Amino acid sequence: MSDPSRFDPPTFGDGAGPTSHSFMSQRLRLNYLDWGNPGAPTLVLQHGGQDHARSWDWVARALRRDWHVVCPDLRGHGDSAWSPDGAYMLPYMVYDLAQFIQQSGREQVAIIAHSLGGAVALRYAGLFPEKVTALVAIEGLGPSPKMYAERRLTPVTGRWRDWIEKRREQSGRTPRRYASIEDALQRMRDENSHLSEDQARHLTIHGVSRNEDGSYSWKFDNYLRNPPPGDLSEEELNAVWGEISCPTLLCVGQDSWASDPSRDGRAANFRDAKVVSFENAGHWLHHDQLERFLAEITAFLPDSASLKA
Q1: What is the DSSP string of 179-206?
Q2: Domain architecture of the chain: domains with CATH
């Protein structure tokens, strides 16, 4: 490719997998996958916390004919670099996404994002509404109004002191090592009982790296387990969502811990949002109910032929 700053790999057939590339953001080398079809409109698939870009493989394969699908690894995840100081604040991640889209050279993109990735994408879409044509957020709204109310019961000094103490504990923690892929696979099964055997194995194989002694560890940075105590207030976050101008699809699993935004009032903060609830699905509903999820997003996303690549 003539310009390494642009995401223009060669087009390949449906049987091929993605190609891996990198970009720079805040001195970190971050990884992304490109599924080809560069002449089509760009669709960004952003994974969630303690996950990786290969988590989107089933969705990417289904959409690659109509879209130029790209899947970045968040900092500290997958094959992206870890932050040297363990800084995984949302503003940093929003900047990373902004940098990724800016370097793509595309005027506009559509985005599908999960959990932590959804929180990042929702903030980006509110800050740069002119850049996003459609947004699908899978349980990416973060704390519910009830959780915010409970959080306010603890003084801010208490929350910060608790974070410092947990951070101190993490500094002495080493990543867990698994003797075999099968051991790591069992941990994946325990985390999400909805997964099929093939799904669990795929996510595990792409989610671990091998240590020098032959054991396996998850690729994500352990510092991600203790997010910083400061973020936008509930009122500020509602205001950011109110700036999103594109159609927005908010997806929630009925078996998940996440609160339904159509019931807790958060959906009302959006100009143009539809909430879809998935039965027999947890937090990773795009895995748990893949066929229905694909049907929903295919009907929701704009006709790619009508968009300028």
Answers
A1: SSHHHHHHHHHHH-TT--HHHHHHHHHH
A2: 19-170+231-306 (3.40.50.1820)
